[in-house]
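Researcher: Let's continue the batch. This sequence belongs to Amino acid permease, and it's 445 residues. Same format as the previous ones, please.
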Amino acid sequence: MQTKSSVNLKRDLGIISGLSLVVGTVIGSGIFFKQASVLEMAGGQTQGLLAWGLGGVITLAAGLTIAEVGSRIPKAGGLYSYIDGIYGHLMGFLTGWSQVVVYAPAVIASIGGYAAHLTANFLGIDLGWSRLIGIGYIFFVMGLNLLENRIAAGFAVLTTAVKMVPIVILIGYGLFFGRVDALGQTVTQVAATPGGNFGMAVLATLFAYDGWVLVANIRDEMKNPKRDLPFSIVFGVLLILLSYLGVTYGVYRVLPAQEIVSLEDNAVFAVVKSAFGLVGGRIMSLIIIISMLGTMNGKMVAFPRMAYAMAKDGLFPAYLKKLSPKTIVPAPATITVALMATGIAAFTDSADLLSNLAIFTIWIFYVLAFIGVFILRRRQKKLTMIIDFKTPLYPITPLVGICGGAFVVGSTLFSDFLGALTSIIMVLVGIPVYYYYINKQKHTK
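Model: Same format as before. Here are the structure tokens for Amino acid permease:
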């Protein structure tokens, strides 16, 4: 491994790679499995479409806001660097700590677990093998990311193309062959309240949209980050929004609302089977497995880069800032994140719970970043620096992102206070760790 300052990350990723990482990291299994739960919580088809649409609008507003923050703080490290630049080193550290130590290994293990269960069912083998399969997927994706960054980027492009196939099919089949009225139907049993729980439906879609911000972690590996980063975020989120709305509308056109709810996680499979039979259902399972591997790859690309950036700032162990001399990727950070994910996958079945708790804290930092665009505009008002991207419809756009983020945080506190409190405690554990590294830096000077 190399630690010399002359060895830097390679700038060879373009717009296609950036777009693929945004789309590939976000679109995993949520759009295929969440149709019934969102519809049930919303209370009807019209409300269900509105929930997916509002979640997308909030995410798009968030993306437009973060694109400006990234232009004003042109550093690698993504959200960690943005919060650090706006609020100082402690808040920046807690942002990176919560993502690298808590969220990253948990969510990677969780994705591996879902993919492994689908694989076991697809192969017709005992589910007892799923844990080993999940670990195997983690090591496979880790191996890809130990090669040159264009390999992982190429895998992102490939898996994104694959996962777009069923999305296009579902949209087209629903539009041209669906015979059900896609608007106006209600469900007889609605979650939470007699009138539905539209807010919780929006919350569920926001979790399905999460992950787009991670592309900011590869800024220093983009050929033209000033152009490609905001383009990738904005158009990537817009493509995801249109895909989610299209798939939802297609499913609503094929199946009655009550049937979608009764089918639960199998609603999308039922649509595919009606079009292509049992073979189509098996093909869909395979595509979703590939889709989830693409999502895992996006996480494995992004989070080690954050650990690498924090190590360069002296806030994580020094070995994490080393680059492979052959492939020029942060190999130690990649291996470390993969091993933490493997530990969770091997010894606990609660990875999904951990990732859900971590999402709560990530949205807290999202909101801080959205507020940061107001702070940065005021702070940099007299500077002559060129801003490559400015949030359109300012200040309305960032305010939409702030309100959406506040809704996520408030809803989680209301629905799972103990879980939210646990998540906050996990983040606060990072405070003594931060001061340990600060004191270490003082003694080494």
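Researcher: Any comment?
Model: The two ends are 24 Å apart (CA to CA).
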